[in-house]
Give the backbone structure.
Amino acid sequence: MRSWRSRVPRSLAVAVALTAAVALPGCGSDSGGDGGGDSDEPIKVGALFSITGPPAVVGEKMRKGLDLAVEQINARGGVDGRKLEVVFYDPAGDTAKAVDQTRRLVSRDNVDVVVGGGSQSGIALAMKPILERDGTLFMATEGAREIVQPPDESELSFKATFNDTVVLDRTMTFWEARGVKKVGFLPDTSGFGESAKQVIADEGPKRGLTVDVESFDPTATSLTPQLTRLRGKDPDAYLAWTTTPAGVTFLKNAQQLGLDDKLIEHGFGFVDERYFEQAGRAGVGTILSSPKLPVYDELPDSDTQKKALTSFAGAYEKKYDEAPNVFAGEAYDGVELVAKAIEATGGDTDGKKLAEALEGLEPYTGVTGVFDFTPEDHSGLRADDVAMIEWDGKRFVLAQDAG
Amino acid sequence: MSDRSRRELLGLAVLAAAMVAAGLLVAGDYEHGLLVGFCVDLLLLTGLNLIVGYAGQVSLAQAGLFGLGAYTAGILSAKEVVPPAVAFVAAPVVVAAFSALVGLPSLRLRGLYFTMATLGAGVILYLVFGRAVSLTGGPNGLLGVPVLEVGGFEFDTPFAVYWLAAALALLGLVLARNLVRSRVGLALRAAGTSEPAAAVAGVETFRLRLLLFTLCGAYAGVAGALETFESGFVSPEPFGFFGAVTLLVVLALAGAGTLFGPVVGAALMLLLDELLADAADVEPLILGVLFLIAIQVMPQGVAGWLGERFGGRRQRRAPVGSERAEAAR
Amino acid sequence: MSDLLQIAFSGLTVGAAYALVALGFAIVFRGTRAINFAQGEYVMLAGVAAGALNEAAHPPLLVTVVAVILLGALAGVLTETVALRLIRRPDPATVTLATIGLAVTIKAAVLLITDRASYTLPGFSGDASLRIAGATLEAQTLWNCGLVAVAAGGLALFFSRTRIGVALRASADDAEMAASTGMSRRAATAWSFGLAGALAAAAGAGLAPVSPVNYDFGTLLGLKGFAAAMLGGLGSMSGAVLGGFALGLAEALFAGYVSSAYADVVAFAVLLLVLFLRPTGLFAQVRVERV
């Protein structure tokens, strides 16, 4: 029985020492801390993007867009003479981790604003109450409309992307133009998919559409059961709504089941070349809803966004040696919008003041669309900012559309 | 009072003092959240220790049970079925009942087969958490858990929750100690002294092992409730197979079958989380490598090492012994 | 009717993978009486390696597949060295726990190396498929079933006709005989894990064309393969194959007719049922002690 006596105090001492070692560095740090700073201090921008994990494809591009914007702004001399400094965390698609990291941003790192909601709607939704409570402006880059609704719970929360209501509105117009009456809808069970499911349930019937829904888990390795059931209802179009690789499986399974004589579509969370390269032949002809960026070279010169898009695309390609991506554009817009707001408040980073500044900004022509925020609409984009595009096997092109 | 008993009580007192000091000295929501995390881990490990360290049966269900507690508290309070305080109490009750239910058939199995049954139960729970979207919020989790309120007092900051967590964790340790020193512990130890006795005693210890497994579940339930009310939401990530493995690995490294093993383990988890906050992906690699090293360095193998910890018996313990005896037949 | 057939076909695809994984469990169990928790991670390792190799160098598909199978075998053999060599008394419980540590380590390593990216492989026969009674049978499904047939047949021959195989089998069946077969315990363990690794790798290579693979997809798959092995009777080769296909079909039927959301639960419910009601599985090989 030798173990007990000597172990007891020793192991306890170890435990206490370990705990103390961790706790002490945290002593004395204060939480929160917004408000106007000195003219020399950098503006701290907290950023949460999942560059690994299921939304990695999305998050990685978002990070690039953010970095490009910060670089450009700092090259111009910063905002009000103050440079932007980024504090970055990767929650890897894990909501619990993201919440921890958000807390860290406000309480340890004392950031002035936060751009990016973890590249996943569910994560952005979890971050929102923390930031609202802390009085920190939150500029999300994720899709679900709940991020900015209802207005009285989202005073400090904005998004640099479309609300899914706007995108689905445009999609339904497209369907009307193509004569689609019946749709098979496949949302994933993440916050992004669930939100869209709600929107379609509300809006579909109003536009005279019949929609059948089959959800899938983002880790699903086969969507054949769902597609088989939907096939039985004989829809004119199949629309999947996800940002994860399961969307590739959707395309493959749809082809295998011989569904490609119908419209095969994806939502605006899937606009990425890597996914379509992985899908191979199964991806050719897929229609997506998207910001105009992937097809900017096909736009007429009279399009309001053309200039902004061309300049962004040029700068992005120069820095990263690859074609620009819509997710990068969203993050880029997010940073630019925040910078404009800080300029408008004269350097005051108090959440409420920044929010008012954003609402009061003139319509801003960004990469994702023309942003016009109001107290009721913290997304600020309209259906005309959405383009319907198609993957032709090599790149995205404008879809033939009469809508 | 025996020498050992005095040391144990002294140790507990020192721990209590340290936890009070930590609570008072540390500032910041994030930091308080870490301390609550320590208490949660301590509860989980103390519970796991009961079945793994003292009854010698390796359970892979602890992460799933933790999740069951978390979701029970979360769903009941977020959907406003009952007030948060009731939801908090309901969590350990539900998990204990579930553990008892699973334990009844599972504890009749020995060794690896018991472990496999707990694995099955744990994974089923994890899958349900992620798939029952309308109930649990699906893979992105359940939001909108209200603040815990007891008699008008609101636990609306991690600081407030910490005091509750610390009290419960300490209570849990004291309870575990008393249990081990009681008839239960003595009976289990007696069962391990020789193989024929083990075979006979196996039947008699069943009820004791069931009790321990049920309690293990109760601890996980309390841990889950604390976690839910501290963060305000529940997400399925921590409750899967690797969560269960992490708890096991940490307990084995820290010392299963000892009173303060769980304390060391919880501190280890806290330390790793903090040190690797910016490189969280490295954590499982470090744990895996540590575990592989620990396993090979233990001369009697992990099971024997567990047995040695538990009262210093040299004999092969019942579960492993029965495997070998059976294989040799 | 065509729907039923369609669903059955998708059950075959995944059932083939379960069968290969279950065979691996059977071999390791026979050789060491332990359960190899790293089995699923071997599948993942091979699948991800195949996808990454294909993306980086575009070698002929056959080369990629053979390469990862060899990689799998190597990974299995290294298991013995890295995780088990220093264990003085490798009793089954310790070996099992060691494979748990190994599983954690392999997964974490792949996570760090690949940064959680996902990969695919082209189908072995491209997009080819057959239409049978209104349902589509993917060529890849046939390939995967073919892999099982080759593996099962190959193993049968190996264990009965080759010197090493016979020795391996003898030392597994009877510990006392082990010494006289000339095969040391370490060699037997290495062979067992090596074969298991190769089988898992075949499963991984066969799955990568079906849906994107990443660092995460092996864990659940491995556990389900274990459930299949238990269903067939741990230690039984034919049981492993039958258990694998049975589980795959059961899962697909459940997904198609009851609920796709909970289809993954089927394997574990089956595991629990087998453990509680008939732990020896369908083809008894070992007796499980009950209390």
User: Anything to note?
Assistant: Confidence is low (pLDDT under 50) at residues 299-329 of chain B. Chain B touches chain C through 61 residues (CB under 8 Å). DSSP finds 14 helices and two strands in chain B.
